[in-house]
Amino acid sequence: MNSVKIVTIGGGSSYTPELIEGFIKRYNELPVRELWLVDIEEGKEKLEIVGSLARRMVEKAGIPMKIHLTLDRREALKGADFVTTQLRVGLLDARIKDEKIPLKYGVIGQETNGPGGLFKGLRTIPVILGICKDMEELCPDAWLVNFANPAGMVTEAVLRYSNIKKVVGLCNVPVGMKMNIAELLGVEGSRVHIDFAGLNHMVFGLNVYLDGGNVTSQVIGKLTDGSVSGVTMKNIKDMQWEPEFLQALGVLPCPYHRYYYQTRKMFEHELEASRNEGTRAEVVKKLEAELFELYKDPQLDIKPPQLEQRGGAYYSDAACNLINSLYNDKGDIQTVNVRNNGAIAGIPDDSAVELNCVITKDGPKPLAVGELPVPVRGLVQQIKSFERTAAEAAVTGDYKIALMAMVINPLVPSDGIAKQILDEMLEAHREHLPLFFRTEPAAALV
Ligand code: G6P
After folding, report:
1. What confidence score (pLDDT) does residue 230 get?
2. Could you tell which of 234, 258, 308, 309 is best to mutate to test the pocket of ligand 1, judged by most ligand atoms within 8 Å of the CB?
3. How do residues 255-297 score in pLDDT, each as one tens digit?
4. Lesser CB count within 10 Å: N end or C end of the chain?
């Protein structure tokens, strides 16, 4: 391979300039000659706007990267080296429903956690498995790098229900946490190393090192002495931790853990936001409209700084670093979602886990962690059971399995409420859940 072909499905996303910037920066090492941005009919206008901006960015950089825009996924996939997926089935309107409906029942409404995460998985997994089928036929040697949320559940489904084995799930949370901690310590990110292990949006920093020295308790001390704020992502309120709790936990939670450990406060905050500025998806919808207005400007040839208002900070670095290391066999350590294979004890071998891996041309090699500390082990296992069950519901369209997933999720209080939320959300998302509403007794997706 001396030139690389990348296909980005969901290419009309407002995040695409992040990716372009990342590929431009690394062009000397990672010669992406062809970048195919693929979208669906409803995304055509966005695809054209963001595609034109991508072309201006590439032209400014003076590199021979050809940007193709298409609605024909199969055409794009032929002979691809890497396929990235960043799609949102049902667009932001579906996310608004995921965030709003649970609130009516006193339950957290969130893009990737609780009932919202379940439904995002139910909508997304069949589409991703369709892409896998096309890849088997059209680019069987390509790597699938999935950023589509819920990234852990989607990776799990690909690992267990498709023939694509070269898959890596990717998220910006670990790199975001590392940069947050570096800032808190007042040092460059490159001096900080964190041993990450867990699941996507359920990952813990087990140890934090500065220049090789273990500074975990120093970091936890700073996080609990009231002197710092902003240790979160743009999409999650920076709710302060109870100092004694965090000290007792002894490991670094990720920003999403607030939904589990601060459920009541986060719920109240969500409810208030939904009555005022809107849920996160409603805020993002406005932000996106503004971003696309900026992207339309024919003078714009860089990634606009306004994109930093989104939760996906460092996403391009995470994605491009991963692709670069797979391509160049770098052997560096990155935190990604892969098949467990015994790396975390007590999680099935064939399940997806998020942890530090050595990235080689043969794929990420997990750095085994063994048992997770007792205080976090149970929650990780419970969420894994939820994700496994949710993935099974997504491929079968089985109501009872979906109900079971809802009930075992720790953010849902009881079977009765779970059923009410499930019924309302199934109806609300009907058009994007064909497997749940088919009339003939068809076989499952796989
Ligand atoms: C974080 C998560 C991503 C998620 C994003 C949402 O960065 O890690 O998985 O997509 O937030 O950000 P948004 O701006 O869409 O709320």
Report:
1. 65
2. 234
3. 999 999 999 999 999 999 999 999 999 999 999 999 999 999 9
4. N
Task: Catalogue the active-site residues.
Answer: 256
CA 178, 150, 19, 296 torsion-angle sign? negative
- Burial code (b: 16+ CB inside 10 Å, e: under 16) for 108-122 equals bbbbbbbbbbbbbbb
Which amino acid, 190?
S
User: How far apart (Å, rounded) are the C-alpha atoms in residues 69 and 94?
Assistant: 25
pTM above 0.85, yes or no: yes
> Ligand 1 centroid to 440 CA: how many Å?
37
Q: Please give the single-letter amino acid code of residue 11.
A: G
State which amino acid sits at residue 290: E
CA distance 197 to 80: 31
DSSP letters spanning 106-142: TS---SSSHHHHHHHHHHHHHHHHHHHHHHHHH-TTP
Report the DSSP pairing between strands 332-339 and 352-360.
antiparallel
Which atom number of ligand 1 is nearest to the Cα of residue 315?
7
Report how far residue 371's alpha carbon sits from residue 304's, in angstroms, rounded to the nearest whole number.
Answer: 43
Residue to substitute in 235, 258, 290, 314 for testing ligand 1 pocket (most ligand atoms within 8 angstroms of CB): 235
Apex CA 256: angle with CA 420 and CA 120, to 5°? Answer: 45
CA 280 to ligand 1: nearest atom: 16
User: What's the CA-to-centroid distance between 213 and ligand 1, angstroms?
Assistant: 31
Q: Whose CA is nearest to atom 11 of ligand 1?
A: 311
